[in-house]
Amino acid sequence: MQTQRDARPGATSVGREREAVSVAVTALARHLPRYQQAMANYARLLVELS
After folding, report:
1. For a Cys staple, 29 with which of 12, 17, 39, 41, CB 3.0–4.6 Å?
2. Dist CA 9 CA 20 (whole Å)
3. pLDDT digit string (tens) for 2-48?
4. Cα 21 to Cα 29: distance, rounded to the nearest angstrom
5. DSSP assigned state of 7
6. What pLDDT score does 49 carry?
7. Backbone angles phi, psi at 17, to 5 degrees
8. Among 7, 16, 11, 18, residue whose Cα is nearest residue 49
């Protein structure tokens, strides 16, 4: 099974933890239809508030 890789590997190693979590939450949201909107908003806010 192939997985998609983000173009920003190692975000946590350069102090961009919020961005890394945002990428992970966005990826998970696609697989959780009931929570897609809430998770997408959370991911967006993580990056905007940093």
Report:
1. 39
2. 9
3. 555 555 556 666 778 888 899 999 999 999 999 999 999 999 999 99
4. 12
5. S
6. 83
7. -60, -40
8. 18
Q: What is the structure's pLDDT at 9?
A: 58
Write out the two tokens for 15: 């102090």
Count Cβ atoms below 10 Å from residue 11 Cβ, excluding itself: 17
| Nearest CA-CA partner of 46 in 5, 15, 17 | 17
Which own/partner pairs from 21-29 qualify as long-range (CB within 8 Å, at least 24 positions apart)?
Answer: 21/46, 22/46, 22/47
User: What pLDDT does 1 receive?
Assistant: 47
